[in-house]
Design brief:
By secondary structure, the chain is an alpha/beta fold. The chain folds into 3 domains: 92 residues, Ubiquitin-like (UB roll) (Roll), CATH 3.10.20.30; 91 residues, Elongation Factor Tu (Ef-tu), domain 3 (Beta Barrel); 130 residues, Nucleotide-binding domain of ferredoxin-NADP reductase (FNR) module (Rossmann fold, 3-Layer(aba) Sandwich). Helices cover 21% and strands 30% of the residues. The chain contains 9 helices and 21 strands. Strands 12-11-14-9-10-13 form a 6-stranded antiparallel beta sheet. Strands 18-17-16-15-19-20 form a 6-stranded parallel beta sheet, with helices on both faces. The protein is globular and about 60 Å long. The two termini are 39 Å apart. The chain binds flavin-adenine dinucleotide (FAD) and FE2/S2 (inorganic) cluster. FE2/S2 (inorganic) cluster binds next to loops.
């Protein structure tokens, strides 16, 4: 049994051999995390005293230099001794997740095999721009989908890309989906819009990773119509660009919003209303941003793209605490299927609210 002391948390926590993150969740500590599988970096912290055993992590998410400086991913490490640790991100009370019934109120097929779903939950749900929900249809396993709509909307909008052999994505492409019941569980995730930051926002949505990014930039521009926002809409080929007219309209509405389509595998050809960049999004970042210091970078979509951008962003001077990711990883989803469900139940079963008010605990509003 090891003892974990967390900076800014008043009582020590007991660890019985599980990961540091599992200990935090079991004790009701609002420690930041999203994927619980090493892909997002939300649970990054620094070991101030003591030793951990650390599983492998993508180099873009936890670099060798960071590891040498004592940084760890709480979801990938277990204590080898008593520990003192601090979280990189602040400890924030986020809107509580709840599971409830909902109904599909509209379904639209877009190009690029994308289905845009609108779901009305039985009761209004409070969430932050950039968070995600688990949707469970019929007797299928639940799957994570990020919300595209703005906080406060009655209906939740999701953009679902059809995956070959995919259970849920194939199900939502059915013609008779409208009216179907769906279990909605959320909100979840730490890739949300930081409203107390007023520097430039760089947002990258790869494929349907555009969904959470739309919510983030929409909320940020609604709060300050003149803030500087640069959105890179990343896709492979023209046929994947499923949300162009809406983005072009948004760019006309806000003078300091710039939107580029970054197409990694397309030949220069006919263009839509948005400017095209025929290269990887990392190359565009390097061209446009001599330094990312002081900016916030939000990125969502395929884990490999998220990792590549994280590496480039670090080289361009982005501070680790200013990177907020939402990788659409299979591992995070399948952790909730089958074998791994048992650890979750065990820790959710032990979860308890802290028995006191926390001094200085920040609360993020929706
Ligand atoms: C935080 C988060 C947010 C997300 N947001 C979105 C979003 O906004 N839009 C979106 O389109 N997607 C999103 N995703 C991805 C989404 O959750 C699903 O993974 C995706 O829709 C595929 O689900 P499926 O049930 O259709 O496919 P699955 O049936 O899960 O299959 C997907 C692929 O994985 C393979 N596979 C099946 N079982 C396993 C297994 N046990 N282990 C490994 N691989 C397996 C299948 O062969 C198939 O190729 C998000 C994922 C995460 C983690
Ligand atoms: S929660 Fe640990 S890396 Fe995502």
């Amino acid at each position: 049994m090891a003892r974990i002391e967390l900076k800014d948390w008043p009582i020590p926590l007991e660890n019985g051999g599980e990961t540091v993150l599992e200990t935090m969740i079991a004790h009701g500590v609002p420690f930041p995390y999203s994927c619980a599988s090493g892909d997002c970096g939300a649970c990054k912290g620094r070991v101030l005293c003591g030793e951990v055993a650390h599983d492998s992590a993508p180099a873009g998410i936890l670099s060798a230099t960071e590891r040498a400086d004592g940084y760890v991913l709480a979801c990938r490490c277990t204590p080898k001794s008593d520990l003192r640790i601090e979280a990189l991100d602040e400890l924030v009370a986020l809107p509580a997740a709840r599971r409830q019934r909902g109904w599909v109120v509209s379904r639209q097929h877009r190009q690029g095999d994308v289905v845009v779903l609108r779901v009305k939950p039985a009761k209004p749900v409070h969430y932050l721009a950039g968070q995600f929900f688990y949707l469970k249809f019929d007797n299928l396993p639940q799957r994570a989908y990020s919300v595209a709509s703005l906080p406060g909307a009655d209906e939740l909008e999701f953009h679902v890309r059809l995956v070959e052999g995919g259970k849920t994505s194939r199900y939502v492409s059915r013609d008779n989906l409208v009216g179907s019941e769906v279990t909605v569980d959320g909100p979840h995730g730490h890739g949300y819009w930081r409203q107390n930051h007023d520097g430039p926002i760089v947002a990258i949505g790869g494929g349907t990773g555009l969904a959470p990014v739309l919510s983030i930039i929409g909320a940020a521009l609604a709060a300050n119509a003149h803030r500087h926002v640069h959105l890179y809409y990343a896709a492979r080929v023209e046929a994947d660009v499923y949300w162009e007219a809406e983005l072009a309209a948004l760019a006309r509405q806000y003078p300091n919003l710039r939107v580029d389509c970054a197409l990694s595998r397309a030949e220069p050809s006919e263009q839509g209303p948005l400017p095209r960049r025929y290269q990887r999004v990392t190359a565009s970042l390097e061209q446009d941003w001599p330094s990312l210091a002081g900016a916030k970078l939000y990125i969502a979509g395929p884990p490999k793209m998220v990792e590549a951008v994280a590496v480039t962003a670090r080289e361009l001077g982005l501070a680790a605490r200013d990177l907020h990711t939402d990788p659409f990883s299979d591992a995070a989803d399948h952790k909730l299927d089958g074998a791994c469900t048992s650890w979750l139940r065990r820790f959710v079963g032990r979860w308890r609210r802290p028995p006191f008010e926390l001094p200085g605990l920040a609360t993020q509003k929706g």
